[in-house]
Amino acid sequence: MKKIRVAIIGSGNIGTDLLIKVQRSEYLTCVLFVGRNLSSPGMAKAINLGVKVSDESIDGIVKNADVIDLVFDATSAKDAKYHWEIIEKLGKTVIDMTPAKLGALCIPAVNLEDIIKERNINMITCGGQASIPMAYAIGKSQKNIEYIEVVSSIASRSAGPATRLNLDEYVDTTEQGIKLFAKVPNAKAILNLNPAEPCIDMQTTIFALVENPDMEKLEIEINKILVKIQSYVPGYSLLVPPMYENGRIVIMVKAQGLGDYLPKYAGNLDIINCAAIAVAENFSKVHNNIN
Amino acid sequence: MTNHILISDPTLRDGSHAIAHQLTAEHVAIYSKAADEAGVPIVEVGHGNGLGASSMQVGLSLNDDKTLLETARNNLSKSKLGIHVIPGFATIKRDLSLALDIGVDVVRVASHCTEADITQRHLGYVREKGKEAYGVLMMSHMATAETLLQEALKMELYGAEGIILMDSAGAYLPSDVDEKISKLVNGLKVPVGFHAHNNLGMAIANSIAAINSGAKILDGTARGFGAGAGNAQLEVLIAVLEKMNYITGINLYKILDAADLAEKHILQIIPSIKSESVISGLSGVFSGFAKHVNRISKEYNVDPRDVYVELGNRRVVGGQEDLIIEVVMDLVTKKK
Amino acid sequence: MIQEDCAKSCINISNLEKLKSSHILITGGTGFVGNWLTEMLIYLNENFNFNVSIYLLSRNAAQRINYSKFKYIHYIKSDVKNVKELPRNIGYILHAAGTPDSREHVSNSIKTIDTFYRGTQNILDLASRLPNLIKIIHFSSNKIYGNNYSRIPMHESNTTIVGNNNQDVYSESKRISETLCKAYISELHLPIIIVRPFAFIGPFQSSDKPWAINNFIRDAILGGPIRILGNELTTKSYMYGSDLAYFVLNILSEGKVAEAYNLGSSHPMTLVELAIKIKNIINSEIEIKIRSSKDTYHETIFDVPNTTKLEHYFNIKPAFDIEDSLKRTILWNKIAK
Asked: Using CA atoms, how far apart are residues C113 and C81, in angstroms rounded to an integer?
């Protein structure tokens, strides 16, 4: 079996965590780890792992294009747009970890197979990866849902300046994802930061306004999708099984991280990375004709 | 100038918590008019958790923000129209820009007391539009005075022209108020304010302690109409301030009338300190949780006081109402 | 409009003779300081055949002004922390990179320290290997003097103090960047001059920046009221952009290595005087409101530089007083909308 050769651009926390996951994968190998500055902690980790590094940003990708099959973009929405213009011309596939939303939105548990032909895949948001599979299960099992709402609580420490400055974009992108996958006309996303010590794990609650809920059907769909999610995010679990309370369906999930690069409480970062790895591995499997 | 206190009246916002956000347009019209008559400087209107907060998480509003704000705007001529905004609930594009178009004058952008940097964009937007922006630190009993000062300084830099400390849980004692308000008054350039809750019967006393420490802004609601055990009772506060020779610009008799009107037409029950409120205050839990805790505790037959204690232990912040279900379910399991 | 201002500020071109045909690098090339220096050099090139080659180093391609018609302006898109090498023919470096936006400093404190410390170190390292290096100007900040509660303007020999609040991350970063410069002067004998800028006004400064003067102008343009936050007697001084550029080029040409020079206006103004001046230019009906945490202040901040060292040594004076500076800035803001 031939491992797919990936490059990671962005040597921050997301990129570095992705690197560790890639190196652990049977289906992927990292041929290049790209950033802007060789002395960042992420770069040091990469060098330590024996991975080839470059501080030439997108130019590093261009120079090594012939040995790269797929690129993870873990930079920023602004930079991702600029990178895509170049990578598209090189004919490579990009898995975009930023909210740039240039390509197909992907929730592996839902549409992994459908996006196989796409060249730019967007991983939405961390809250989106945690909640949309459940929203999808609700959408599939219930009739006439008007509205789904998703509330995520994350540890303060796992939300850096970029997250804090872009809360509005996070809300917007997550809501877009919910509407698309659950096929509902209205959606709302809320984010809470909690500074409690020790740091809290990421927790997400999904609400749906439904008049006559079919809880049996819901449980079936939820269990189905839970199995799928857990295959790529082992730390994902149901905190409170689906219940009907005060006219609303309530599902509570928790995402605990693997602790690869960041501590386990940063489940929000872990879940989006695990989802991205699932997408990349699928490309590899399809490429190698594995089922 | 020395003895002038700016009063902001969130009867039609904090009060929303007390009636599960079921404010009608008529309620808003009646009270706004009366508050305007009485000379209340700022009348705050909206869902209990602020702009864009109508949700299953914290409760769906009977009327949308647009209706509530437009009604208020039409009934206020001298008073300014204010709103409470929490980033993470409200976005600039979807919520704030519409509110400013309706004619909101004052925007109070709030965050949990340790997370001021999420207010940067929203405060900046309000200032760019030339409206009055204030910063609010919620659940402020959960941080030290020094932390509160540093977070308040951030908000000041982002454009806030005043910083209000909220005692969202009704957990403060007057000595806490002295310490924290003085720290802010000394360290900030802009005026400092205090928003009290009455869980431990301290709302008025704490408000006065705040003034004695140099605060210039106070919040109060008619009959104390607000989340949990309610806020500082506005008409009482005005009377006390008058007795202490402070100037608020509010006519005492007219604000008493306004409170009578509120009692007659809007309030379902007069706020009081129930057993749960006491435990909630001691546990430092967000007052807005009260109705949710009551409902879910009753449904699953657990003691709401146990729920508050556990929520307090978990150091749950405002906006995390979904955790109530989890805590109740845990207690149910433990009971078995 | 900008070029007219440059002409007015250039009271004596002969001071700048040494800069003819030089290659000048400006880090932070797309910021306020970078823009004004570029405009001034364009003025000198176009009107007096100065033949200066300008290299603008900046991360921010988006904020760039389009100077493509001037063949002597070159862009280097890079971050000061990461740039690998500098054009070999650089003779002069004006290191002005890094944002003075205090909101950035408190929201992104770690990055702030990194940019000012590592960014400066990287530039100085690269500079030390340039074969034709003549002078470097390092832009520090008035903030390293701390809060001045005396009525005496700050002199370059004053002790530097850093406070304990979040925003003092900036003051500390600037202070250590000066110490870094001294280390490079001592060990590698780099020809560094330190400039401590105070407050400035003029085109190229966006009106949303969180400073009193920008807030006043923006409030006034929107119809008021002008809100003064804090002590209205806080005293500051403002220098106009083209004067800044002219002064800096003088220091670049004739300044003494290892010296520090205050850069700013010595004309003190209280915030309330400033607000009154602004409203009189825009609309005298505008109200001024004061929002302050305290009723009486025991101490008043006097953030004004002693500029005698610079003015005597170089024999130069600002061409714009505060009235003119405000008028030009307000005009530019209106045109820009």
From this structure: 11
Element (DSSP H or E) covering residue C27: strand C23-27
Cα B80 to Cα A248: distance, rounded to the nearest angstrom? 37
Read off the tokens for A202: 């990421």
Rounded-to-integer distance, Cα B288 and Cα B240, Å: 27
CATH of A4-102, one of 1.10.10.60, 3.40.50.2020, 2.160.10.10, 3.40.50.720: 3.40.50.720
Peptide bond into C268 cis (omega under 30): no
> Cα-atom radius of gyration of chain B, to the nearest Å?
18
- The SS3 of residue C231 is coil
d(CA B105, CA B81) in angstroms, rounded, equals 5
Tens of pLDDT along B46-61? 999 999 999 999 999 9
Identify whether the C-beta of residue C146 lies closer than 8 Å to the C-beta of residue C171. Answer: yes
Task: Output phi, psi for A71, to 5 deg.
Answer: -120, 135
Q: Are the C-beta atoms of C101 and C210 separated by less than 8 Å? A: yes
Query: Could you give the ipTM of this predicted complex?
Result: 0.90
Residues of C in CB contact (< 8 Å) with A are: 79, 81-82, 84, 107-108, 111
What are the boundaries of each domain within chain A?
4-102, 126-264
Q: What radius of gyration, in Å, describes the C-alpha atoms of chain C?
A: 19
Residue C226 contacts residue C218 (beta carbons within 8 Å): no
- C2-202+239-265+305-320 is classed CATH 3.40.50.720: yes
Structure tokens at C40: 């001034």
Domain boundaries, chain B: 6-265, 275-335
Q: Which residue does chain C place closest to B213, by CA atoms?
A: C294
Q: Which chain A residue's Cα is nearest to C103?
A: A165
Burial of C306 per CB tally in 10 Å (0-12, 13-18, 19+): middle
Residue C49 DSSP one-character state: -
Considering only the top CATH level, what class is A126-264? alpha beta
pLDDT band at C206 (very low <50, low <70, confident <90, very high): confident
Q: What is the topology classification, in CATH, of domain B275-335?
A: Helicase, Ruva Protein; domain 3 (1.10.8)
For residue B183, give every residue at least 6 positions away whose Cβ sits within 8 Å of its Cβ, in sequence order, or none: B145, B146, B148, B149
Partner residue opposite A36 with nearest CB, options C79, C107, C111: C79
Identify whether A30 is a catalytic site residue: no
pLDDT tens sequence across B268-308:
889 999 999 999 999 999 999 999 999 999 999 999 999 99
CA atoms within 13 A on the CB side of C221: 22
Judge whether A203 is closer than 8 Å to chain B, CB to CB: yes
pLDDT in tens, C101-150: 999 999 999 999 999 999 999 999 999 999 999 999 999 999 999 999 99
3-state secondary structure B35-60: HHHHCCCEEEECCCCCCCCCECCCEC
- pLDDT given at position B1: 52
d(CA C144, CA C141): 6
Place of tokens 């990375």: A273
B/e letters for C87-120, b = 16+ CB within 10 Å, e = fewer, are eeebbbbbbbbbbbbbbbbbbbbebbbebbbbbb
